[in-house]
Amino acid sequence: CGIDDLTHAVEDAASALEIEWAPALHVLYRTRDGSVAAVSRRTFQERGEAGAVTPDTPVFDPSITTLGALRAGAFEQPARESWHAQLLGIPVET
Question: How far apart are CA 19 and CA 86, in angstroms?
């Protein structure tokens, strides 16, 4: 099947480039030094409690489904403006 072939090609390319895929339920965010971290939701909450993650921390939302959302900046935004705010115990700003 074409989809299987494409999936295998992507997996092969990722392997050759030493890319590791983050689990689907992990939270993706930008750390203070600018790198990207992928952690469990619980770890994200714990880092919020410790002050390592704040409402201003840039987070990524890979669930966006339109080019318009991407262009509008919905892929990377402050945690306070995303569903990630719930994990930090703050109201979501819209």
Answer: 30
